[in-house]
Amino acid sequence: MEREAQDLGELAALGDSSLEPQLLEALGALDSKLKGMEFDLNFRGEYDSRNALVSVHAGAGGTEAQDWAETLLRMYLRWAERRGYKTDVLESTAGEEAGIKSALVEVKGDYAYGYLRSEHGVHRLVRLSPFDADHARHTSFALVEVLPEAEKNADIKVNPAEVKMEAFRSSGPGGQNVQKTSTAVRLIHQPTGITVSIQSQSSQLQNREIALRILHARLLERELGRRHEEMERLKGKHVSAEFGNQIRSYVLHPYKMVKDHRTGLETSNAAAVLEGNLDEFIEAYLRAQVAAP
Description:
Blueprint: H1 2-13, H2 20-40, E1 52-58, H3 63-83, E2 86-94, E3 100-108, H4 112-116, E4 121-128, E5 137-148, E6 163-168, E7 184-189, E8 194-198, H5 204-235, E9 246-251, E10 257-260, E11 266-267, H6 270-274, H7 279-291
Parallel strand pairs: 4-9
Antiparallel strand pairs: 1-3, 1-5, 2-3, 4-5, 6-7, 7-8, 9-10, 10-11
Helix pairs in contact: 1-2
């Protein structure tokens, strides 16, 4: 790139105006290449290049919070579609009246985790509730968790004897049994107490395989958290409970604004953000992480 820049400088020094369009085009391409290389520095994490597992959980607030969780899920699915990533909803629990209580999505593509790790945290919504007869203003919360896909038996070694499996019948809304056989699977990692339940697939084998993948990812997350706490302890820094941090607010009334509380970035085009236009927020977060000491 230095050689390219030097060559362009020598051509510009000739003072030939007929070369100007060619020089401007080459300079623009060089600038884009540099910005791309600079942004690649954001992906310095050990697991950034991997697929991601994204889970969305409705907070307290009943139907309003469950509708907000479903809105967030749709936002991430549309963002992934824009980037050409493949998505698979591995598990989803519907709300009583509307929305979802929780959902788990696998996002496949280069650096899916590297991008989406910026979304981990609590997301807050302020709006006039469509579920309130008085159309009062409500504040709702949803938790988004993002895990890197773990490589089985490479990142985390799990002793099969320490994993207890329970089979149960998959159930639909209202608790009615939709299958006569026990195809749903619950895995319990006895040393840590981590529990994973999957009932979205038609066979017990498929549900077990998905549950194992999620269990490995959660154990990897636990190990990464332990390493982070140890590193911060050695540095003498206070370790905050990141799990509960509110990272972004989406205000739809009395004005429209989306603000990221970590970077200070905000926009009035809330509708575009909820349609999956997240790149500006993701990139601002990643650049801030690289700039941090």
